[in-house]
Amino acid sequence: MSRELATIVLTALGATLVIASLLFFLRPRWLLGWLKGMLVFGILLAGLYTLAIAVNVAGYQSLSGMQTVASIGTRKQGDEIWRVTLEPAEGNPLIQTVRGDQWQVDARIIRFSGPLRWLGVAPGYRLERLSGRYMSLERERSAPRTVIGLSDGDWPDLWALEQEFDLPFVEGIYGNATFMPMRDGAVFDIRLSASGLVAVPMNEQARQAVRFWDE
Predict the structure, then answer these.
(1) Which residues, in sequence order, are bridge partners of residue 181?
(2) By 3-state DSSP, what share of the chain in percent is helix, strand and coil, each rounded to 5?
(3) Long-range contacts made by residues 88-93, C-beta under 8 angstroms, separation at least 24?
(4) What radius of gyration do the chain's Cα atoms show?
(5) pLDDT of residue 37
(6) Angle in degrees, 0-180, between the axes of helices 158-165 and 33-59, rounded to the nearest 10
(7) Phi/psi of residue 149, nearest 5 degrees
(8) pTM (two decimals)
(9) CA dihedral 17, 22, 23, 26 (to 10 degrees)
(10) Average pLDDT of 27-55?
(11) Beta-carbon contacts of residue 33 (< 8 Å; ≥ 6 apart)
């Protein structure tokens, strides 16, 4: 099931459950005591939960297998100052100045189980931030840091709620690329699976940076 179709199905189901439960409360004669009231309240909660999932599915990109989600290019502007170009697979390129010797892109991943998996709702991802850091511990503690948000932080944030309350049928995973070295003219692909991010050097400058870093 595509992300768009899954969003429509979950939205329709959640809205139906919410409306049905409200109709019960508006017609008290339909209530058969406390038990039915609790049942209706449970239906209302299920509807709201389904709607929250639908909203978050719409805000995440579908994830199937290992796929390239963005590319990163770096250009030197000065000592520990770089122009970083991030081109997501879906969306507009982002060009920012990043301080440090290395860069990192973080992503949030959501996987589904139970009835949501039976519906064919694929795992989703959302790129969260681009940041830099220094190789020197002293510089890391004292020098200016760069942290750039890549998402709007929609509410309700199902990923954050799952981390705090261990929600049913939802698993939130924080996947992040290993810090990779800055180098003038280097280009990296950022690839993502359901378990996390991997940065892959795509040109000779990037491969040389990785080799020099590993030595």
Answers:
(1) 102
(2) 40, 35, 25
(3) 88/127, 88/150, 89/61, 90/61
(4) 22
(5) 62
(6) 130
(7) -70, 140
(8) 0.67
(9) 170
(10) 64
(11) none
Neighbour tally for 45: CB within 10 Å: 13
Q: Are strands 196-201 and 180-181 parallel, antiparallel or unpaired?
A: unpaired
**For 190-207, how does the pLDDT look when each residue is reduced to its tens digit (9 = 90+)?**
988 766 788 899 999 999
The tokens describing 123, both together, are 């795992």
CB 209 within 8 A of CB 93: no
Nearest Cα to Cα of residue 199 among 186, 212, 148: 186
Match 């991010």 to its residue by tokens: 197
pLDDT for the residue numbered 175: 65
Kindly state the tokens that stand for 148: 């750039």
Q: How far apart are CA 176 and CA 32, in angstroms?
A: 52
The percentage of residues in the chain with a pLDDT greater than 70, rounded to a whole number, is: 71
Query: What is the token pair recorded at 187?
Result: 């280009």
Q: What's residue 85's pLDDT?
A: 96
